[in-house]
Amino acid sequence: MATKTSILVRTAAALCAVTAGGFALTAVGTGAHASATAQGDATPVPFASTSPQVPGTPTATASDIPSGQPEPTSAKPAEPDPTAAPPGGGVATPVPASPAPAKPAGPGAAAPAAPAPLAPSKLPDAGGAAWKPIAPPHTQPAVQSVGLNECATVKGAATWQQQGYVSSFKTPAVQDTFTFADPETARRAYEDVLAAMNTCQQQSRDAQSAAKLAPDAVVTTTAAVTGGTAYAREWTAVPGMSAPGPQTGHVYVVQRGGVLAVLQFAVPAATPGDHTLSADADRGALTELATRLETAPAPAPR
Q1: How does DSSP assign 123-178, residue by residue?
Q2: How far from the centroid of its chain's Cα atoms is residue 28's Cα?
Q3: Each residue's pLDDT tens digit, 239-254
Q4: Among 31, 82, 125, 172, which is disulfide-ready with 249 (CB 3.0 to 4.6 Å)?
C-alpha cells in the first residue's frame, strides 16, 4: 500500500528564531504525520523520523491507481448512419446522442476543491499562541494513505492540502484538508480516523514501552459536534513523529460533504503560561473548522 509523509512536519525539533522578517523552519514535530514512503521505496519503519522538508515543496508521489489496459475489440461491419437521408430523398430522422458512461467514484474521480485553511486568528488559543502561517497552503493529489500521527491515517482522498502555522513559542500547528469523490467516501474516512483515535491511548503506550519510556499516555475525547470530534493526548512523547518530552497534543477532526480536515498541534509542558483548553474552546474550534469546510465548492461535473 502506497503511503506518503507530510511536507511540513515530520521530525522532532524546533523552529528557528524569527530571521530576516520571516520564520526559518527546521525539522518541526507536532505529533502529526507518520513517516511513510512512496510506492516502490523501502518499507517504512514505524515511528521513524524522516529528513526535514521545506513547507510548500512537494515530494515525489506514488501512483495509486494501476494503469488500465485497453480492452480488445473485434472488427465489426460498418453500420448505416441513421441520420443519413433515406434512399430516394427525404429528411433524416434525428437520433438522440447516447449518454456518456458514468465514471466510477474513487481517488481519480471529481472532488470538491479544498476550501482555504483556517485563518491563524481562528486557531485554538489564538490569543496566547499568536499563531502565524509558516508558508502558503500547498495542495497536491493525495496518495493512497496519508499518516496523521502515531495512530491514524487518511485513505482514499483525491487531493491533500496542507497549511502550517507557528506560535509565538516557536511551536507548530498543521491543518490537513482532504477532498474525496463523494460525501460517503469522506464520511468513511472520518469514521476510520475516529476509530483509530479511540484506540490511540493504547497505541501510544505501546510505542512508549517500545522506546523504554513509562507508558503514561492518556487520550480523551474533549468535545464533539455533528461530524466533528476533538481529542487531547497527554503523554511523554516518543521522539520521531513527535517532539520528545511531556506535552499535550490536540487533534480536531471534521467532515463536511466531500471534505475532511484534521487540525493538530502540541503544547509542551514547559511552555510558559496557561494554555489549557476547555471543552467549550475545543467545541468552538470544531465549529470554526466546520464553518470553513462548508465554504468548499460543489464537485465539478463529471
Answers
A1: STTHHHH--EESS--EEEE--SEEE-BSS-EEES-SEEEEEEEE-TTS-EEEEEEE
A2: 17
A3: 988 999 999 999 999 9
A4: 31
**Contact of 222 with 277, CB cutoff 8 Å:** yes
CA atoms within 13 Å, Cβ hemisphere of 283:
7
Task: Give the pLDDT mean for 41-45.
Answer: 31
How far, in Å, CA of 251 to CA of 282, rounded?
Answer: 9
| Structural domain spans, the chain | 3-56+107-293
The 10s digit of each residue's pLDDT in 253-270 is 999 999 999 999 999 999
pLDDT band of residue 224 (cuts 50, 70, 90) is very high
Q: What is the dihedral of CA 82, 87, 92, 96, to 10 degrees?
A: -10
Fold of 3-56+107-293: Protein Transport Mog1p; Chain A (3.40.1000)
| First CA to last CA distance, the chain | 27
Q: What pTM value is reported for the model? A: 0.69
Q: CB under 8 Å to 61, separation ≥6 — which residues?
A: 4, 38, 140, 141, 143
Asked if residue 63 has pLDDT above 70, the reply is no
The residue among 124, 175, 162, 166 whose CA lies nearest residue 18 is: 166
Q: Residue 31 corresponds to which cell in the numbers above?
A: 505529533
